[in-house]
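Box 3.1 A note on notation
Throughout this textbook, protein chains are presented in two layers. The first layer is the amino acid sequence; the second is a token string describing backbone geometry. Keep the layers aligned when reading.
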Amino acid sequence: MSAKYGAPGARGEARAGFPHVRRAGEALAGARAAGATESQARLDALLTVMSTLQDTELLHTAGPAGLRHVQAGARTVLEAGGTATPAGTRALTALDTDLHSRGWAPRGSAGLLAGALFLDALQGARG
């Protein structure tokens, strides 16, 4: 997908210092500080990554138009106030239903969220 669409992919993300992992970590902290539950904070962090990542899994299964569709859906949830708000919850439900019906999964975004959660756990262990 990197060669076909010019997406940076995992290697590009690593070369750039994992900017999406950092953004997910910032989103986690911001959502927690705003009073979101842990599940809501994690979902908002995932959506933050989904909103901008050139997810090569989505490019493979959905193509560039599908990727843009998913990115726009993630931005819609965040712009509605995130998953801790009623409007954000409705937008997330709509996005989730849409993705399931199409068989699309943001696996690249999920992997980067996992990296952010790992770093978050390490920071928590240090105190």
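The two ends are 40 Å apart (CA to CA). The chain has a mean pLDDT of 92.
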